[in-house]
């Protein structure tokens, strides 16, 4: 299982999880209680229930760089272009825009 904290403008908005070929995104309870809370994407409106998908949500996949920047990331790691979660965790901690993706390191060593 791999997880990432999703921040919007520096505030924890939710947790993205990849587990057993399934992706889940769940907004943080404290974030939802904030009257100024905005969704991380129009495709992921604010709600208490988790979003579940068999593939990485298109919004998060769209944060992964393309072109020469993706080529540079792939050249300097052993990550497959098909491993979208690993690319998201590697490349999107400080991506352009209001969203940041920060890996949660588990005790089992998965990142």
SSE arrangement:
Layout: E1 2-8, E2 11-19, E3 22-27, H1 29-33, E4 51-53, H2 58-61, H3 67-75, H4 84-91, E5 99-104
Antiparallel strand pairs: 1-2, 1-5, 2-3, 3-4
- Portion in strands: 25-35%
Low-confidence stretches: 107-111
Main beta sheet: strand number and arrangement? 5 strands, antiparallel
Q: What string, H for helix and E for strand, traces the elements in order?
A: EEEHEHHHE
The coarse overall form would be: globular
- CA gyration radius, whole angstroms: 14 Å
- What structural class is derived from the secondary structure elements? alpha+beta
The average pLDDT is: 89
Extended strand count: 5
Q: Report strand order across the widest sheet.
A: 4-3-2-1-5
Distance between the termini: 8 Å
Helix content: 10-25%
Number of helices: 4
In short:
It is built from 4 helices and 5 strands.
What does this structure look like?
- With 111 residues, the chain is an alpha+beta fold.
- Helix content is 23%, strand content 28%.
- The chain is built from 4 helices and 5 strands.
- It has helices at 29-33, 58-61, 67-75, 84-91, and strands at 2-8, 11-19, 22-27, 51-53, 99-104.
- A 5-stranded antiparallel sheet has the order 4-3-2-1-5.
- The termini are close together.
- Residues 107-111 have low confidence and may be disordered.
């Amino acid at each position: 299982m791999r997880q990432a904290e999703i921040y919007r403008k520096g505030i924890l908005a939710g947790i993205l999880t990849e587990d057993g070929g399934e992706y889940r995104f769940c907004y943080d309870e404290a974030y939802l209680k904030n009257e100024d809370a905005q969704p991380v994407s129009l495709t992921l409106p604010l709600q208490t229930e988790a979003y579940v998908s068999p593939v990485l949500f298109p919004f998060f996949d769209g944060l992964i760089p393309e072109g020469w920047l993706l080529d540079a990331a792939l050249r300097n790691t052993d990550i497959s272009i098909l491993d979208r979660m690993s690319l998201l965790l590697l490349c999107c901690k400080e991506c352009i825009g209001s969203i940041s993706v920060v890996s949660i390191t588990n005790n089992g060593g998965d990142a």
